[in-house]
Amino acid sequence: MALKAFDVVGLEYEYRHPRTIAPTGLLRFTNEGLENHELIFGPMVAGVTVADVLAAPDFSAVVTDPVAMIAAPGETTEMVVSIDSGTYILVCYVANDAGESHVDLGMVSSVEVDDPA
Ligand SMILES: [Cu+2]
Question: Which of 4, 37, 59, 108 lies most in the core, judged by the most C-beta atoms within 10 Å?
Fold first, then answer.
């Protein structure tokens, strides 16, 4: 049986993805933009919001076991992952030529992972 994939597209400066996904085995990140983009993807600690993560001094205290992938323009990269239900953050900390971090330009999102069982 083929692994179910969670497809994320990155571009300037946002992610496009389904709002809710079932736990999936294959995380697939495609860069449809003109700059390099990364996908840092991990479950937020219960009760933590995206705004809390962005304000937190210690990322690892609010997002547990994130994975990181980077894709050049036009590239697709994929990774087999094992994920549980919860709310996951997607964030890119790459900086553009002006020195602005993509996250500050809006490249951050979240997705609900919901186990249908
Ligand atoms: Cu980016």
Answer: 37
